[in-house]
Amino acid sequence: MLRSMITAANTMAQLQQQLDVISNNIANSNTAGFKRRETSFGELLAQQFTNLPQDEAPRLTPNGLRYGVGARLAETNIVLKQGAIMQTDRPLDVALTKEGQFFRVLIQGENGTQEIGYTRAGAFYLTPSAGNQNVLMLVTSDGNPVLDENNAPIWLPNGYKDIEISDNGTITATAPDGRIMRRVNIGVTSILRPQLLQSAGNNIWTLPDFNALNVNAADVAVNMTGNLRAQIGMTQGALEQSNVDLGTELTDMMITERSYQLNARSISISDQMLGLINGIRSS
To answer: What is the dihedral sign for C-alpha 140, 143, 147, 148?
Structure first.
């Protein structure tokens, strides 16, 4: 009885983690640029009891009984499937239209240092620079500076009339008289191994230390510069919507809840059987 209770408890803990992932997907179903996560399960260690006679008829399975101790959450993967494109007609709304490409932004790291983050959310804004009121910084909705192809914060001169963003991410600010005041390329990175992305919160991801993982950086991420900029897909005046399918998420949630209830019921029945055993012993 104790073994069955342990098996059920182990599985319930992993199912709770799956419910957390599904809940996070549902909560961000209307978050621009959000990418859903999906989970997969694997088997925990199993114990083999070889207590059956060896001289029985030929069998297709090993002798004895294989007893597992529950399931585990094997992987939680990011799904980079393209989300729907919603037109907003706002000049600073930009949607990436190719899978695996991310905007580069500057964020605060855990130890207080600044590091590069990656996001698909293209709702950008202009805010006055702290050091120069004639300069406007391009930032995300959370105030993180957007970086150019050289990883420098993007700035635009105050007093512009129009802003145009090309399909390959070139921002052009023009003056009221039609002259070009500033032209700069938005920093875009193609992530080749998206499962290495680590969530930094606020719909932003970071990449781990490649040296610690003994991984070549060029095999993980490629900055779209030079001739590679022609491969960038970008649309001005639009936002990419979340790729969460509420129907799929709700179905997965119901299946997970039923599995959780089944294991909880298993613990309850095991507890009742232990009570019966104790009652027989006392009598």
So the answer is: positive
